[in-house]
Design a protein that fits this description.
alpha+beta, 6-stranded mixed β-sheet, 5-stranded mixed β-sheet, 9 helices, globular
């Protein structure tokens, strides 16, 4: 006789986060403990999110995972680390016996399906959203209620920052076991409603060196990286927290750009050097500084992670003019109508003075498209059973 509920499934979504004080370099490779604290902005899930369904059943023979429709190797070390950690926490909760024993068993195998609503290849922190979503879904399905920083972090360091909305600090911690290396919210998502984020997706050249190997090489060879972690970042964390709390865009924007520049300087200080920025990335940097100089104040700010795409921070009253400046400097080749995705931006004229101030020849097609978004919330549970990515048989539903 079949049991009433052969499968228990949970579906949730999690956001992408963009660091404004960068994390680069680990003090412990296995536990993924950083050599410095970092601070990030959580982006809105209407534009960028990962959706994950985790399902457990006594009938599943083995753990399985599907990413964007393709089955992946469930034996990947980081995936295994997350699963081990969740099951350890679930057993610990069960053995403490302070609540009704749940009918599900920790020994049940799990099936996981995950999809991104943005191009994974575009280097938009998909692993952070992915592992935060995985940790959140696994915790719900196995009945774990503790802080999930450690679980998400074991998958991808910056994933622990995607467990919260708004503005998030990842404290590096001091302990060898990493128990104090956790993410916490500095300010909630609605704290700075005028703040806007524009992602300028540059020709998605695949990066020559992945972040994990890049970090290892930097830690081993860059004196600048060690100096940055000890002498520069602590004061910047405090200053960035102040700028956010006071909604001081001038300070926030300048510090965001300086920290991005220093992160890329440590990459060049690595031996052999690492360069994540492309010619288009450098043109965007030039464009931002010309735009700000024309206005006599910091109205837009850039930050670049380990890839060529620019993330621009600005306030809502500057978005239209800056998008016009990007369109002027990087005219879309063919996708004029699809050049702008996400939040609507009204067309704005570009003054002749500003055109002259930008002072560079247009590079057609340099920017593939722009995603306009804003600060958003942390992970969400989807209650609608139709949202599940796995069917009643525990296999991915056919794409509609």
């Amino acid at each position: 006789m079949a049991s009433e509920k052969p499968i228990v499934a949970v579906t949730c979504t999690a956001p992408v986060n963009i660091a404004v004080i960068k994390y680069w370099g680990k003090r412990d490779e296995e536990l993924i403990l950083p050599i410095n604290s970092s601070l990030s902005v959580t982006l809105h899930q209407d534009q960028l999110k990962t959706t994950t369904t985790a399902a457990i059943s006594k009938d599943f023979a083995e753990d399985r995972i599907w990413l964007n429709g393709q089955e992946e190797d469930v034996g990947q070390p980081r995936l295994q680390a997350c699963l081990r950690e969740i099951r350890r926490l679930a057993r610990k909760r069960r053995s403490s016996g302070d609540e009704d024993p749940l009918p599900l068993s920790v020994s049940y195998k799990v099936h996981v399906a995950s999809v991104n609503n943005f191009p994974t290849a575009a280097g938009l922190a998909s692993s952070a959203a992915g592992y935060a979503c995985l940790a959140y879904a696994l915790a719900r399905v196995y009945g774990v209620e503790s802080d999930l920083s450690e679980v998400a972090r074991r998958g991808s360091g910056s994933a622990c920052r995607s467990l919260h909305g708004g503005f998030v600090e990842w404290q590096m911690g001091e302990r060898a076991d990493g128990k104090d290396s956790v993410a916490r919210q500095v300010a909630p998502e609605l704290h700075w409603p005028e703040l806007r984020v524009l992602i300028l997706v540059v020709s998605a050249e695949k990066k020559l060196m992945g972040s994990t190997v890049g970090m290892q090489t930097s830690v081993e060879t860059s004196p600048l990286l060690r100096f940055r972690a000890k002498a520069v970042v602590p004061a910047r964390m405090a200053e960035m927290t102040r700028c956010i709390k006071e909604r001081d865009f001038q300070g926030f924007g300048q510090l965001t750009m300086k920290d991005s520049n220093q992160f890329h300087a440590t990459c060049l200080d690595t031996f052999p050097p690492i360069s994540y920025l492309s010619d288009t990335s450098r043109r965007i940097i030039h464009l931002v500084h010309c735009f700000n100089a024309h206005h006599g104040q910091t109205k837009v700010a850039y930050t670049f992670d380990a890839g060529p795409n620019a993330v621009i921070f600005t306030l809502d009253n500057t978005v239209a003019e800056f998008v016009a400046a990007v369109r002027h400097s990087f005219p879309p080749k063919s996708n004029g109508d699809k050049f702008l995705k996400g939040l609507p931006v009204r067309p704005a004229p570009l003054s002749d003075e500003l055109k002259a101030a930008l002072g560079m020849d247009p590079t057609p097609g340099g920017v593939k498209y722009i995603i306009a978004t804003q600060v958003g919330p942390g992970p969400q549970i989807l209650d609608d059973p139709h949202a599940h990515l796995l069917g009643p048989d525990g296999l991915p539903k056919p794409a509609v």
